[in-house]
What does this fold into?
Amino acid sequence: MQASSGKVEHQAEQDRSSARQRLLQRARSRLLDRLPSTWDEKELDVAKWKLDKAFACAWLDAQRVLVATKCNQLLEVDVRTGHKVSVELPPEPSAREHTTVDSGWGFCGIHSIDINPVGDLIVTGGRNPTDAVVMRLSDYKPVQTLTGHLDWVFGAAWVSDRHLVTGSRDGAMALWNIQQQEEYSVLRKDFNNKKDMKRKFKGRVRDIKYDYGTDRVAALGTEGCIKLFDMERDFRITRTVDLAHTKELVCLAQRADVLAAGSCGHVTVADPRRRQAEVLVMHSPDGGQGVRSVMLQDHLLSFGTGRGKIVFVDMRKWEPLQLDGAAQVLHHEGPYEGTMAVEQEPPVHPMKPSSYLECGSGWLQQDELYWDHFVGTDVRNACYAHAWDPTGSRLFACGGPLAFGLKGCYMALWR
It folds into this structure.
């Protein structure tokens, strides 16, 4: 009788614990849904820094954010004080196996920042855009420069504490084993060696993300697909998800149950666990101005546009989140259950200003190009990157003018 009574009591305690967890989860979900409506924008005074377009960001802690720019600057920004610390990149390697691409456009920028799981190393772009650089997070001391790609490195992601993957415009991906030594070194790979460089795409590799729960690398290719890789089997492709919208594919987010890709005018969301993976296409409120950044936070998907709008989508309903009770007019396709509907261009429905967050004015250099071609026009800042803080209660957003040749920058904390 005592044993039976003990089992009943144990089961009852488990039931109470599960009920508490469900209540906490519902409370957190409701809070997350309401947060964007309560935020105010705190713009950083970037005019004094004269930077060009912030392309990538990553939170270091509750106060500091690492930011990378088109002008090849890596910065530690304090969102509380508004101060910055410039991080010096190691010198470009003097000798290379092959000639790298020279665009003739000057700086193309640093497009990726990632922190390893244990939190002691970062990987980002190098002085040469075809390289990646690994540094210690504690003091930004250079550990290694990774060289071997022939074109700009667009994506870099840690797959363990000492292994990372890079992807480039040259169409190749590479796995790097980082050896933390006392002295800085250069780790080289041969582009023509199939063991060093894996060419899994016909076009360019535009972004790379890793999911630790599934041990899965996802890479976005400009040819119009997301490919999933098993790193334990030497970059074996486990799945290819073809996308309906392939123009200007630039950004990717993933977790176990979601793949999300941003293109010229759409966000495509797919569930890789399903046989028919593509389940939702959502149109950007800025149309052909592009989706420039995409993030996942619990049940919310957020994306930043080429004209500085930040939209939030409730993935449980596959509907845009209502901010301030505004009527939603953002068009979406494809039911959650079943296959995606055949694409048909929807009528244009302008979103109300209270239906999204809108990035501030930032800083714009009014040079000869501006006065010749853009004076009097409404120049907006594209949201090239955004990231939730470690508590999941604030958002850092950054970017700059979308038009080629215009120089400017935007950084802000939404809180």
Notes: The first strand starts at residue 41 and ends at 43.
